[in-house]
TrEMBL record:
Reaction catalyzed: apo-[alkylcobalamin reductase] + an R-cob(III)alamin + glutathione = cob(I)alamin-[alkylcobalamin reductase] + an S-substituted glutathione + H(+); apo-[alkylcobalamin reductase] + methylcob(III)alamin + glutathione = S-methyl glutathione + cob(I)alamin-[alkylcobalamin reductase] + H(+); 2 cob(II)alamin-[cyanocobalamin reductase] + 2 hydrogen cyanide + NADP(+) = 2 cyanocob(III)alamin + 2 apo-[cyanocobalamin reductase] + NADPH + H(+); apo-[alkylcobalamin reductase] + adenosylcob(III)alamin + glutathione = S-adenosylglutathione + cob(I)alamin-[alkylcobalamin reductase] + H(+)
Keywords: Cobalamin, Cobalt, Cytoplasm, FAD, Flavoprotein, FMN, NADP, Oxidoreductase
Native source organism of the sequence: Alligator sinensis
Known EC number: 1.16.1.6, 2.5.1.151
Name the record gives this protein: Cyanocobalamin reductase / alkylcobalamin dealkylase
Cofactor(s) recorded in Swiss-Prot or TrEMBL: FAD; FMN
Length: 246
């Protein structure tokens, strides 16, 4: 079983990392352990899974080449279809394995997400999920405050795209690593949550720490453009995009 898990991880990295994606393995049980039953993934606790992130370089390495090849096709949502394209190709590398893919934007019939992306990123060690409970002196009163993941290298300049699950590979030996707590002070955590909840459109929360790489100006322009108008930037015709978190 260890050999199968190692082969799966190696194949995924060979297929995705060159396109600006990042992978983090986890046991499904780590995820289920921190959530209420309605949000559990219906697999045994030791089941192997991988959280898939896109880093800033994905835009140039995967997205733009994908769009260039699709110019004559009708595209509903270029970013989603690019991610789906690359992960679907990955499945072809595992003809003898079952691989289940849940995307960050997919919903169940009851309108609950198929998986909670930020929770998965946190338990896999990919990025620290900062929430209201991480602030001791809560200044927000009755306001609704959403949490946000911060990556130790990219800050907020990344996105959680999917979780890949290998239902026939069990990994009781997999060691869990805590995510890097890179926003360590009370003051900075309050600042992060303030920026994310009330000023997210100015990009500033993404630079709450010093980062290795951030989105290019071209990439920022694309994501700052209203979804329905992004097709014009790409020279495409299409319907309304979803307003994805990027």
């Amino acid at each position: 079983m260890e050999l199968r898990a190692a082969r799966a991880e190696r194949s995924l990295r060979d297929s995705l990392c060159a396109f600006g994606f990042e992978l983090h393995p986890l046991q499904v049980g780590w995820y289920n352990a921190v959530l209420q039953p309605p949000f559990h993934l219906a697999y045994p606790d030791n089941t192997l899974a991988f959280v898939v992130l896109s880093t800033p370089s994905m835009f140039d390495k995967a997205f733009k080449p994908f769009v260039n090849k699709q110019l004559l096709k009708r595209i509903r949502d270029p970013v989603d279809q690019c991610i789906s394209h690359h992960l679907s190709l990955v499945k072809e590398h595992f003809p003898d394995e079952k691989v289940h893919i849940f995307y960050d934007y997919e919903m169940l019939p009851n309108r609950k997400p198929k998986f909670l992306a930020q929770t998965a990123a946190h338990v896999s060690g990919a990025a620290y999920y900062y929430q209201r409970k991480d602030v001791k002196c809560d200044p927000w009163g009755e306001k609704k405050i959403y949490g946000v993941c911060i990556h130790p290298q990219y800050g907020g300049w990344f996105a959680i795209r999917a979780i890949l699950i290998f239902p026939e590979i069990q990994v009781p030996f997999l060691e869990q690593y805590a995510p890097v707590d890179c926003v360590t002070t009370e003051e900075r955590r309050i600042q992060l949550l303030e920026k994310f909840n009330f000023h997210w459109q100015d990009w500033s929360y993404r630079d709450i720490i010093e980062v290795k790489e951030r989105y290019s100006e071209e990439q920022k322009t694309y994501f700052a453009t209203p979804p329905a108008e992004r097709f014009k930037l790409l020279g495409l015709q299409g319907g309304m995009q979803r307003s994805e978190f990027y």
